[in-house]
Structure formats: structure tokens, C-alpha cells
Amino acid sequence: MKRLVSIILNFMIKNNVISKDTEEIEFYRYGIEITLSSLINIALISIIGIVTNYTFESTMFLAVFIIMRSFTGGYHANTYIKCNLVTSISFVILLLIFKIIRHISLKSIILIAIFQVVTIVLLAPIENKNKPIENRTVYKIISTVLSVVLSAISIVLIIKGVDLGLIILLTLALVSIFIIYARFMKRGYFL
To answer: Is the peptide bond before 125 cis (omega within 30 degrees of 0)?
Structure first.
């Protein structure tokens, strides 16, 4: 990753896109790293979706996961490789759970929805050292509204027999688990 970012930065400097100013280079370095890591994550999830024949599900997972994590925060791996690995493994586990509990009872669905809404209401947003939160109240309101609305949509879809509803709900639950894990990490309970 670092080598690829250096190649891109050198190209940008050589073509006078950015100056040789150290602060400006570091700013762009971080932006390029985040962009590349995000693109790799999207590519990996998409490939997993194609290989497992869950293309729509992988798209829905990415949409819900990216939007929710933007406002809730949660666990962040300390390297890009770990981030890509954790996200990919989490998606595979989510698909396995989806296959196992595809015909889950409405009572269980509602319990999962309540779990994730309560978690987000009580714990989100979780700040990360690389992504400070300027206005916690705004992020809390947005994440809460998204959580409630997406839960309601997922429940309606599940009742109508649309599998994507369960993918949405399981993705929301995964986001909640990352929030809980991050909160415990901040308090020193996990490594």
C-alpha cells in the first residue's frame, strides 16, 4: 500500500498537481491511502458476492455498512490489511448466518432490530483518532434515524419475503457489534 501511494504521490508532484510541501504531501498521502483501502474493500466484498452468487446482497451490505459506519463509527483496524480482512471475513460470516437463519421468526427479527437500534442510540457515535467527530449530536441524530428507518424497511421487506431485508438487518447488527467492540476496546477490555 505504501509503495503504491508513494508512486501516486511522486506522479502528482512530478506533474505539479501538488507541491513538495511536507504537510500537503501528508494530507494527500492519507487521502490516497483511505481511498485505495476503501476501493480494495469494495472490490473484495463485490468479488465475494459474485463468487457466492450473492451480488445484490453484497451491494446492499456495502451500501448499508458504508452509510451507517460514516455516522456511527465503531471498531477500526490499525492497518489497512487488517481492515480489509476484518470486513471481508465479517461479510462471509454475515452470509453464512443469512443462509442459516433465512426463515427466522418475526419475533427474532424484531429482537435483532431492537438490539441494533438500542446499541446505536446508547453508544454511537464512536470517535476514531483518524476520524474526529465535529458534532456528536448531529451524528447521533443521523445514525439513530438511519437505524430506525433501515430497521423498519428491513422488517417490511422480510415480512414480504424479500431476502434483502434480512441482509439489511444483519448488516445493522454487524455495525452495532463493531460499535460495542470499539467501546470495550476504549475501556481496555479487549486488545
So the answer is: yes
Amino acid at 88: S
In this predicted structure, what is the pLDDT of residue 22?
76
> Where do we find the cell 446508547?
122
Q: pTM of this prediction?
A: 0.86
- Note the pLDDT tens digit of each residue in 92-148: 999 999 999 988 899 999 999 999 999 999 999 988 776 677 888 999 999 999 999
Would you tell me the crossing angle of helices 136-159 and 164-186 to the nearest 10 degrees? Answer: 150
Phi, psi of 162 (to 5 degrees): -95, 115
Listed in sequence order, the residues at least 6 apart from 19 whose beta carbon sits closer than 8 Å to its beta carbon are 13
Q: Quickly tell me which residue has 456511527 as its cell.
A: 72
The DSSP 8-state label assigned to residue 110 in this structure reads H
The answer to whether 94 touches 174, Cβ cutoff 8 Å, is yes
Spatial separation of the C-alpha atoms in residues 155 and 152, rounded to whole Å: 5
101, burial (CB in 10 Å: exposed 0-12, middle 13-18, buried 19+): middle
Per-residue pLDDT tens digits for 20-64: 877 888 888 888 888 888 899 999 999 999 999 999 999 999 999
List CB contacts of 51: < 8 A, sequence separation 6 or more. Answer: none
| Residue position matching grid coordinates 430497521 | 151
The distance of Cα 118 from the centroid of its chain, to the nearest Å, equals: 18
